[in-house]
Amino acid sequence: MGPPERPPNDLQNQETTQRKERKRSRRRPRTRWCLLKGCASRYRPRQASQRYCSRRCREEARAWSRWKAQQRYRGTPAGQAKRRAQNRRYRERVRRRLAQVREGAEAAARVIPTDFFRSLLRPAGVLRGIRSQPEIAAPALLLEGMPAGCGARLGAGAALARGASRARAASYAPSGGGGRSWSKH
Length: 185
Hints:
Elements: E1 32-33, E2 42-43, H1 55-75, H2 77-106, H3 124-132, H4 138-142, H5 154-171, E3 172-174, E4 182-184
Antiparallel strand pairs: 1-2, 3-4
């Protein structure tokens, strides 16, 4: 068999030689409507399979899809049995909680635990020194240097003098000015 009379590249009866060839533009999808119900915005998709205009619309559509799948599952016998078991467990938790509240109301009204004030207490070593000193009355400290006025009873002055001497011995020393003025160390 020999070569054909006319080779395949012979364009004698073809119209393409007379027509100008058009430059092909890049293929781009046309603008679409967002498929999320209630969005109704137009967008130009970046990918051919893009259905939603933004990430927010896509996330809302996924959330709706999960909700719809859950509704369909709850309609099946297995889903209904699972929901019944969830409700049963919830009712048990509520019953236990109410029983604890009733037991608490029947017991004492409010008990402060023993460890409540523990952080406020001083260490035992500090308390030993405080217990060893005798108690000093507040008037003895306040009225220490004042002379007894006219009309004052003798017994009251004696009690103050006794308490004042203890206070002086514990926390004050004479300043050297005749015994009347006292200063703190």
